[in-house]
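Sat 14:20. Reprocessing the chain from the morning session after the first attempt stalled halfway. Input below, unchanged.
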Amino acid sequence: MAGRLCFAQSASLEIYEALKIMKYENYHLPSGVDFSSITYEDIRWQYGVFRCNSTGSGRDKKHFPWNGVKTNIGEIEEKDWCRLAEAIIERDGETHLLTYLIQWCTEHNYIGASAAELRKEALQLHIDRIFDNPQWGGYLPFNKRYRPEVWRAAHIVYVRNECCRKISPVTQEQIDHVYNGTIPCAHCGRWSEFIVLGTRLRPEPLVPCLSCDCHDPDMGCTMPSIDKSYACPLVSCDDEEMEVLDG
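Finished this time. Tokens:
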């Protein structure tokens, strides 16, 4: 009985893998490229490619535009690149991050791009792993909203941009890679000169309760409700409150 069960499970796994191959086999990949081994860097969008193909001759000649993407594994037609990017994201269990990026791009759609263009932009950002790049201007607000554990671990510096004269957090990596002495303002987006006010003293704990004396492994929080307003790290800590060193 156990042998038949193992055989059935093995057969089901083989069928599942075969179905996955069938699902991803029509992406017109360059010769010799296997879907299962493709990485994000392999298909990173370097630049767009346009060609005008034609068939026939004379009065019967017809022209067909071709839009593609230059990647590390060769040129891929744009529509196939988008399908391939989505498939790799799904393969790696990151569809939720793609959803976040689409929402982010939609909320920052200052040029009135279509839904299809926004989705393509989100795919490019995802394949670039933009949310893991601390030099990205949206690194802190995006991760604070969608991946707070990444935000808490970031090396945050507080600055005041010359344009808006408002205090805002940026990453140390953005400071290290300034462009002509300027960084993008977190309030208006303009690149302007800035002054450093200080740095966050320490990252916030991932789970503040674990460092609290009132936390019990079995019972959870044992703090009296009357004390929570000033003593609970989840209630009394203000995310916007700066903790800085003298600059």
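The two ends are 72 Å apart (CA to CA).
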